[in-house]
Design the sequence.
């Protein structure tokens, strides 16, 4: 098909899509239980919406670094270019001040903008389709009445033509986005059913913790599928499995452990890092204890992806060798020189301060991406009211070679009872380049 025919087809498809959207919008307005809400909502509804906006972590994506809350402009990397989040303050000209409740609902749960175009799925409407209309109503009340309007024009994407054309996204939405749910009977507070609703919907946990398919869609939206919440890769980090696997999931975590992690960002098992640090700071630490318990109870219902497996057992062999000074090899020596002061020769770390490495589910994940990224770039624990101390780990990109990092991580992943595959220098080099980390020191590689 030549360029003129292609353009004509695109225009025709867009006209058909816009007409269909307009007809559907009128029908929805007539029948929707959301009809009738405008500005001036009561304070109780606004406060409920404020809480739900925290559960959904809306501020994280819709606030640029150093920018005003919800004014957009945050760059979100995608395989086809950078997408910039939109202004969702109630500014009439540049924000969503002109949105009716129905238009707001169609954007949040259906992925359709006010002009009828399909939103990029960087907006997790495939997950938000599972948010009930009554909660959307509360969110709308908050954004229209509880958020300061900011006049800030939305920034265009950095996606090149023809990938920047919006009309093909309509077909992505039709294939991969589920139908929006209706209101149902509220599940009891603290129940696994409430946790399931929060995880699948506003929490949109699957967007990071579920693997992606060839269309960049979540491979599954159903917790009956063992791939659901089995782990995904985001910005060089592995968003770990939340299923019941003992080795690299939540099998060894109790409900209390999970709730404490979401509230404080750290437990005896692990500490939050990467994108999860922001989720804890901006979202989960503000959730009620009942909702945190609900999430924990729900996650503990998820079966292991691999089926029954034996628990990891602590092994003191390496700890004794390091204490005696008999540990040999580049991995062991690099660990003693760079890691042992905080994580200790026993790999036990210091509870609530420096994470333990022995029997750690992140350390034992098959994919070492998170560990490589942490060693290259460093990381910080979240600041939370429950744990206000703010600890960090420096990056070692300019101190350690690719071989050093591969060796030390292989050492860590095979010590103190850990059982995880070796790390290669090639994988480290690839991630170093992708992350734009500092070049390695100019000295000969070992081994």
Sequence:
């Amino acid at each position: 098909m030549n360029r003129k025919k292609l353009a004509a087809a695109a225009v025709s498809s867009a006209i058909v899509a816009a007409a269909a959207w307009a007809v559907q919008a009128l029908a929805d307005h007539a029948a929707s239980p959301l009809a009738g809400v405008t500005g001036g909502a009561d304070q109780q509804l606004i406060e409920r919406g404020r809480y739900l906006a925290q559960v959904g972590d809306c501020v994280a994506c819709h606030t640029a670094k150093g920018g005003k809350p919800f004014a957009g402009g945050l760059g979100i990397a995608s395989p086809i270019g950078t997408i910039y989040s939109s202004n969702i303050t109630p500014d009439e000209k540049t924000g969503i001040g002109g949105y009716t409740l129905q238009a707001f609902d169609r954007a949040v749960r259906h992925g359709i903008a006010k002009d009828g175009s399909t939103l990029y799925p960087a907006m997790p409407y495939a997950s938000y389709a599972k948010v009930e209309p009554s909660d959307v109503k509360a969110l709308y009340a908050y954004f229209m009445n509880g958020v300061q309007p900011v006049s800030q024009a939305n920034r265009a994407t950095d996606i090149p033509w023809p990938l920047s054309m919006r009309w093909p996204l309509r077909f992505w939405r039709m294939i991969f986005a589920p139908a929006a749910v209706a209101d149902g009977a509220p599940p009891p507070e603290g129940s696994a059913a409430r946790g399931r609703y929060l995880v699948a919907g506003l929490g949109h946990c699957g967007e990071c913790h579920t693997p992606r398919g060839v269309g960049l869609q979540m491979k599954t939206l159903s917790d009956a599928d063992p791939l659901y919440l089995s782990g995904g890769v985001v910005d060089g980090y592995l968003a770990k499995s939340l299923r019941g696997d003992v080795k690299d999931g939540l099998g060894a975590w109790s409900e209390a452990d999970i709730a404490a992690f979401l509230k404080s960002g750290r437990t005896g098992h692990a500490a939050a890092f990467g994108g999860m640090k922001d989720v804890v700071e901006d979202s989960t630490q503000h959730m009620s204890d009942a909702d945190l318990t609900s999430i924990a109870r729900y996650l503990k219902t998820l079966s292991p992806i691999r089926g029954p497996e034996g628990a990891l057992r602590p092994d003191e062999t390496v700890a004794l060798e390091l204490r005696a000074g008999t540990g040999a090899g580049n991995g062991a020596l690099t660990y003693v020189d760079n890691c042992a002061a905080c994580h200790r020769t026993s790999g036990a770390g210091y509870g609530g301060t420096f994470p333990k490495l022995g029997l750690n589910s992140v350390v034992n994940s098959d994919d070492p991406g998170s560990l490589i990224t942490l060693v290259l770039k460093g990381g910080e624990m979240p600041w939370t009211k429950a744990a206000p101390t703010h600890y960090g780990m420096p990056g070692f990109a300019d101190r350690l070679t690719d071989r050093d990092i591969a060796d030390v991580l292989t050492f860590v992943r095979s010590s103190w009872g850990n059982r995880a595959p070796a790390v290669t220098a090639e994988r480290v080099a690839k991630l170093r380049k992708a992350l734009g980390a500092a070049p390695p020191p100019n000295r000969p590689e070992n081994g």
About this structure: The CA atoms of residues 244 and 304 lie 4 Å apart.
